[in-house]
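Field guide to reading this record: the first block holds the primary sequence, the second block holds the structure written as discrete tokens, and the final block holds curator observations. Each block starts with its own label. This record concerns LytTR family DNA-binding domain-containing protein, catalogued under organism Hymenobacter yonginensis.

BLOCK 1 — SEQUENCE
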Amino acid sequence: MNAAAPLRCLLVDDEPLAHTVLHAYLDRLPGLATWAGSCYGAVEALTLLRTTPVDVLFLDVDMPELTGLELLRALPQPPQVVLCTAHATHALEAFDLGVVDYLLKPIRFERFVKTVTRLHTLLAERSPSPTPAAPASPPAAASPAPDSFFLKTDAGTERVRFSELLYVEGYGNFVKCHTAAGRTLLTAETMKQMESSLPATQFLRVHKSYLVNMTCVERLSGNSLHVGGREVPVGSTFRTDVLRRLQLR
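BLOCK 2 — STRUCTURE
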């Protein structure tokens, strides 16, 4: 229910006079309450409550067939309930059943207004507060692509820039990393590990024992690539990929 909307009220009472009085009261509170229905028995109310939204149930206690308290116990999810009765003896049991208020007949208008006002306050407190929209997060800045990696050698762990690495050569249980500066770095990595460490957009396996920086290829001659003034063999099973990468087919 919108806390500012009039309360949708249902009166269940077997006495016509009670309907006349409460109708007159509600008609004097057009902005605070409105009628959802009138029932003269509990069974009729059970039927109406299945199809009609109700915020507040003004409920008589002493009724034939089912009493107001028996009706209240039968409702799995009752609306807010205000008991209307000529007897104060039901008060303790009523509040055990969670009723909001207890009006003794004859009901005075001032007392009725107090009940309606209290119901508005209660429902407003129970209405979920609108969740403030979370401030939009600025788009995350894209991380720059790495331009180097660290290589473990006998001399320690050394940063090697991709642009400086000409090719990698398998060497038994080791690999050799040949740089443009003419250095050869020996490391206990496997060719597969090296292949996963280097950017695939730049390095290509051209032989089971060679991984080449394709941006450094100077020439293809027969089954060899010339890289940094050195010659690297191209395996027959890798030749198609080499030609495609060099855009030669």
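BLOCK 3 — OBSERVATIONS
The longest helix spans residues 109-126.
The two ends are 71 Å apart (CA to CA).
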